[in-house]
Design a protein that fits this description.
Keywords: Oxidoreductase. The chain has 9 helices and 22 strands. It is of the alpha/beta class. It folds into 2 domains: about 200 residues, FAD/NAD(P)-binding domain; about 200 residues, no CATH class. Strands 1, 2, 3, 4, 5, 6, 19 and 22 form an 8-stranded mixed beta sheet that branches. Strands 8-17-9-10-13 form a 5-stranded parallel beta sheet. Strands 14-15-16 form a 3-stranded antiparallel beta sheet, with no helix packed on it. It is elongated and about 105 Å long. The mean pLDDT is about 95. Bound molecules: flavin-adenine dinucleotide. The site of flavin-adenine dinucleotide (FAD) has 32 residues, from helix 1, strand 2, helix 2 and helix 9.
Length: about 450
């Protein structure tokens, strides 16, 4: 049986796979994109109904196409994001095969390239790009046993308030997902407890410019390394309902009961660290620092943007901050559901190559892995802070396509030289045979 051969196989057709295809085509690299479900699947089936993009339409997009029918300063709905990538893939004629799952990728023995086993048969490829996303497998801390009689779901399984049983809800995690879900549940009339960890909370807009613009002009999206001492930064922002600044004191005023980090569970009672005030103070400091940097930028560059002194006025601390709850019996508090907005982990179990460190993390430089021919795309901080976001992945894909095309040229040179050498050797042998025959 002959095996299909393609120069580059891209695994996954989210934004990363689509961007990769665009740049590979531009570099003349033959490729296919294999997607186990549909283009932009995670936006379709792993996000809640009311989700809007966290960044405005002018920002959270690829350079080559605007969002059709969305105000550039508005926040596209999740359906509009999904439609955008489907339209984009069509526009660039991306060779995407949907419904094809990659089961494994292995290095070919004593030969260049990889064997890609898929649900529709094997493919041999010189290069493989893992574009399967930074947010792959829901991460739920092993805190509350599954047999405790309440509904426990991860934010990927949350859809809308009426999906939850009657009673109070506890949202654990206060990044963009946790905060947005808590706000939606409060608005639906639920009693909401929200466990808040360390976070950043930039202003939605300041002096008439969105925070995405401020992070751009202040060079923060381009920061190449995480701030010292941080392994992960949760950003609490929201594009819901036209977008607004996340303010935990406002949430508390609306009825949310804020808690520190969930710590342990025993006999129906959940305990919380005494870190709520610190976490909120850290978020405030981050918020105020951005206002300071923005003000300095305005002055230094003589920009005509209206001052906004009221943005600096913080509301008084609510009772749940001044007298924090450190223990909560879930049944007594009437909590019938827990939504874990605790993030994601990666899953590269299908990628059986030497490209991971001892802890299973991709070993790479700007997405170029330690296994020649294997590339990663869409990783957090792959080359900079913006890497896992819509606009950032496009630039990382460009870099990878350039590297893949360069490596391909080396291989082509090798193949040409090998052919020349084989032909020359054959000619020599034929001459020798002619001579021997006289
Ligand atoms: C709740 C939430 C909201 C977000 N909002 C924004 C936002 O507003 N703006 C922004 O810029 N970023 C946002 N992000 C971050 C990021 O843009 C998204 O997570 C985005 O989906 C990542 O795109 P990706 O292509 O890297 O990965 P994914 O979208 O995860 O795509 C990977 C694809 O690979 C496929 N796949 C996986 N394994 C295999 C396999 N073995 N074989 C074949 N196919 C496979 C999957 O089906 C999937 O379609 C958000 C993230 C989350 C979690």
């Amino acid at each position: 049986m002959s095996i299909e051969k393609v120069h580059t196989v891209v695994v996954g057709a989210g934004q990363a796979g689509v961007a990769m295809s665009e740049h590979l085509t531009a570099c003349g690299v033959p490729h296919v994109v294999l997607e186990r479900h549909r283009i932009a699947e995670r936006w379709r089936s792993e996000r809640w109904d009311s989700l809007a993009a966290n960044g405005p339409a002018w920002h959270d997009r690829f350079p080559g196409m605007e969002f059709p029918n969305v105000d550039p300063d508005g926040f596209p709905t999740k359906e509009q994001v999904e439609e955008y990538f489907v339209a984009y893939a069509k526009r660039i004629a991306a060779p995407i095969r949907c419904g094809v799952e990659v089961k494994s990728v292995r290095k070919l023995e004593h030969r260049l390239g990889f064997l890609v086993e898929t649900s529709q048969g094997p493919i041999e490829a010189d290069s493989v790009v893992a574009a399967t996303g930074a947010f792959q497998r829901p991460l739920v801390p092993n805190l509350i046993p599954g047999d405790v009689s309440l509904l426990q779901i991860h934010s990927t399984a949350y859809r809308r308030p009426d999906q939850l049983p009657k009673g109070a809800a506890l949202v654990i995690g206060a990044g963009s997902s946790g905060v947005q879900i808590a706000e939606e549940l409060l608005a639906a009339g639920k009693r909401v407890y929200l466990s808040v960890g360390p976070h950043e909370r930039p202003p939605r807009a300041y002096r008439e410019r969105d925070y995405c613009w401020w992070l751009g002009v202040l060079g923060k999206w381009d920061a190449e390394t995480r701030p010292a001492g941080t392994s992960h930064i949760t950003i609490a922002v929201s594009g819901a309902g036209g977008g607004h600044t996340v303010d935990f004191r406002v949430l508390a005023a609306q009825g949310a009961i804020l808690l520190g980090m969930a710590q342990s569970f025993n006999n129906g009672t959940l305990t919380f660290a005494a870190d709520l005030s610190d976490n909120i103070a850290h978020g405030d400091a981050n918020y105020l620092a951005l206002l300071d940097e923005a003000d300095a930028y305005v002055v230094r560059n003589g920009l005509d943007l209206p001052a906004e002194p009221e943005a600096r006025k913080l509301k008084p601390d609510p009772a749940c901050m001044t007298s924090p709850i450190l223990e909560l019996n879930l049944a007594e508090a009437g909590i019938t559901s827990i939504i874990w907005a605790t993030g994601f982990t990666s899953d590269y179990s299908w990628l059986k190559v030497d490209a991971f460190d001892e802890e299973g993390r991709p070993r790479h430089q700007r997405g170029v892995s330690s296994e020649p021919g294997i590339y990663f795309l869409g990783l957090p901080w792959q080359s900079r802070r913006g890497s896992a976001f819509i606009w950032g992945v496009w630039h990382d894909a460009k870099h990878l396509a350039d590297r893949i095309a360069t490596r391909r040229r080396y291989m082509e040179y090798h193949a040409q030289r090998t052919n020349v050498e084989i032909t020359a050797a054959a000619e020599q042998a034929s001459l020798r045979a002619d001579k021997a025959r006289g």
